[in-house]
Specification:
This protein has 600 residues and is α+β, with helices and mostly antiparallel strands. The chain is built from 26 helices and 17 strands. The strands form four sheets. The protein has a six-stranded mixed beta sheet with strand order 12-14-13-15-16-17, with helices on both faces. The protein has a five-stranded antiparallel beta sheet with strand order 1-2-3-4-5, sandwiched between helices. It has a four-stranded antiparallel beta sheet with strand order 6-9-10-11, covered by helices on one side. Helix 3 crosses helix 4 and helix 25 packs antiparallel against helix 26. The two termini are 56 Å apart.
Length: 600
């Protein structure tokens, strides 16, 4: 464990990095006014509610209420400690850290860390066998015949697992791993007899699979030759879930941000082939349909998606489904059309990289145009019934488009293709449009009714609650104002426990000689729940100065509630005294109640 980083170095790191730059590596941010907004990386959402303040150097999500500074963001997004976050930020800021580690306090790695470490070691081992040993020569020659250059092999860290029973097992056992953890990680398989184990991927070319952070979490092994199955994949494990993994995402993220678009393939083979053709912003699903988790990951980085799936019927169906999901999530979707029923890999081999890059990807069509093509499949448009069904379906899809200009373009295409009256088509489209809108309005009315019932259950926050939050917002900006509040409320606490805890931290923060600095104060607080609340309050829009009238009103709201609680307490004590026939005590309590009421 590394020694503690001095406070002055922490402050230097904090001042040397910009939270917007750091968060932009994970979230696509767009400037709106003084702040930046994006899709929250900590919960699923379609509308951006994640806000970053460059001025205050904090972030806050108005949806899930996550909040903090640059340190806490890295800790949450990467699942690391404060110390590890500080070290990473110091590297980015080129601040040297000379930290000594003490072996007596070394933390033992978790099961997840062991699994990742095992995968990382095997990735290096398999790659070494392929490119540096005679035993990998046959696999290397096979790849070279398939147009895999050394650059591609190194970029994707492709490797080879020897066709032996337990080479990988022996290698990892020598590194200190036991069979149980390796079996749970999906790297070895338990035999039926004698409790023996053998390598899962023996005799296969290995394609490493990484999570969005770049950690190797799984492998896909292609048989060398004609064996079955052609591809053997890692099973789902605690570190690998297909529904959350997109192949090459960690490598492609910079290109995705730069081009402000992503090309989505059905698998890693097409993704690798496309990369060799110059498509650097390509990613692939892992043999599974597109999921909400995939879309959330994509939308954090771009909302422009080009789908490039196989041209067969299964690929076209997958394109339609994925396109609908992405469109509903607010993405702008285009579709790359591959001719002759080929997949991207086949097309590149036959026609070359330039045609694929410029004609297939460069010539991608809007999703609506793809749907018009798709709905033709299986229909004989010379047949009146099929033609009418097709036109009705296309009109329904056109009616779902938000943009009036887009609707007009596709209506004109339809009119021209079938020699129909544009006015008649528009009239029919409007009928469908209003029919859809009526259904949507009805659904929205039901939703609004439910929301209204929920809101009725939730009472508006009391005046003292708002007063406490507004006071804290000003206290975070001004140390002398915080002391003024402390003096004014000597006998009265903040009523919300979290608010009281925050101001207690804040008084201590200022007493230590710290100047008002929201990001620094967040480091001072230990409790994550309190950090979230501080970030939320820190994002509040307040006036630069607070008038005496406002100040007195806030203090009055908090004090009055305190006295009301005291009065209620005394009334109950008085009733109890009367029940016990202790009339002298009841009279004394009544005097106290009168005095408290005068204080209001």
């Amino acid at each position: 464990m590394a020694e503690r980083i001095p406070e002055e170095i922490i402050n230097e790191i904090r001042k040397s990095v910009d939270i917007v730059d750091i968060i932009s590596e994970y979230v696509q941010l767009k400037k709106q006014g003084r702040n930046y907004f994006g899709i929250c990386p900590f919960h699923s959402e379609n509308t951006p509610s994640f806000s970053v303040s460059p001025e205050k150097q904090i972030f806050h999500c108005f949806g899930c209420h996550a909040g903090g500074n640059v340190f806490s963001f890295l800790m949450d997004i990467e699942g690391i400690s404060f110390q590890e976050a500080a070290i990473r930020l110091a590297e980015k800021a080129n601040i040297p850290l000379e930290l000594k580690t003490t072996s007596s306090h070394m933390r033992l790695p978790t099961e997840t860390e062991k699994m990742m470490r095992a995968h990382e070691l095997l990735r290096q081992f398999y790659h070494h066998i392929l490119v540096n040993t005679n035993k990998g020569q046959e696999a290397l020659e096979y790849l070279q015949k398939r147009n895999f250059t050394r650059e591609i092999i190194d970029y994707f860290q492709i490797g080879y697992c020897l066709d032996e029973w337990d080479t990988s097992l022996k290698f990892l056992k020598a590194k200190g791993f036991d069979e149980d953890i390796l079996e749970k990680a999906g790297l070895i398989i338990r035999g039926e007899k004698n409790n023996t184990y053998f390598d899962r991927f023996r005799g296969r070319i290995i394609f490493p699979i990484s999570d969005y952070k770049g950690n190797t979490v799984a492998f896909s092994g292609r048989v060398l030759g004609n064996g079955q199955p052609k591809y053997l994949n890692s099973p789902e494990t605690p570190i690998f879930q297909k529904s959350q993994t997109l192949f090459n995402f960690h490598n492609a993220r910079v290109a995705i941000r730069k081009k402000q678009s992503v090309v989505l393939f059905e698998g890693f083979a097409d993704c690798i082939a496309a990369f060799s053709a110059g498509i650097e912003n390509g990613i692939g699903t892992m043999g599974t349909a597109l999921t909400e988790e995939h879309i959330h990951l994509i939308k954090r980085n771009t909302d422009q998606v080009i789908l490039c799936f196989d041209a067969d019927m299964a690929g076209q169906n997958a394109t339609l489904k994925a396109g609908e999901m992405l469109s509903n999530a607010g993405c702008v979707v285009r579709v790359a059309i591959i001719p002759d029923g080929k997949d991207p890999d086949e097309y590149i081999i036959k026609n070359g990289a330039e045609l694929f890059k410029n004609v297939v990807i460069g010539g991608s069509i809007p999703f609506m145009s793809f749907k018009m093509r798709f709905f033709r499949i299986g229909k004989n448009l010379d047949n009146e019934g099929d033609r009418l069904a097709y036109i009705e379906k296309v009109l329904e899809e056109i009616s779902k488009l938000d943009n009036a200009v887009e609707r007009d373009i596709y209506l004109r295409q339809l009119a021209e293709e079938f020699s129909l009256s544009l006015d008649a088509l528009k009239q029919q489209q409007r009928k469908i449009f209003y029919s859809i809108r009526r259904e949507t309005t009805k659904d929205n009315a039901v939703k609004q009714q439910k929301l209204s019932l929920i809101k009725q259950d939730k009472k508006l926050p009391p005046a003292y609650y708002n007063a406490e939050r507004l006071l804290i917002a000003h206290m975070l900006r001004n140390a002398s104002f915080a002391m003024k509040v402390q003096d004014a409320l000597k006998q009265v606490p903040f009523h919300i426990d979290e608010h009281q805890a925050i101001v207690t931290y804040l008084y201590a923060f200022y007493e230590d000689g710290n100047a008002p600095d929201l990001s620094n104060f967040l480091n001072f607080i230990q409790d994550q729940h309190l950090k979230n609340i501080v970030a939320e309050i820190g994002m509040m829009t307040i006036s630069e100065e607070i008038s005496d009238k406002e100040f007195k009103d806030y203090i009055k709201q908090i004090s009055n509630y305190h006295y009301k609680l005291k009065i209620e307490e005394k009334i109950e004590e008085g009733k109890k005294a009367e029940r016990e026939k202790d009339f002298i005590k009841a009279a004394e309590i009544l005097k106290e109640i009168i005095a408290l009421k005068k204080s209001l």
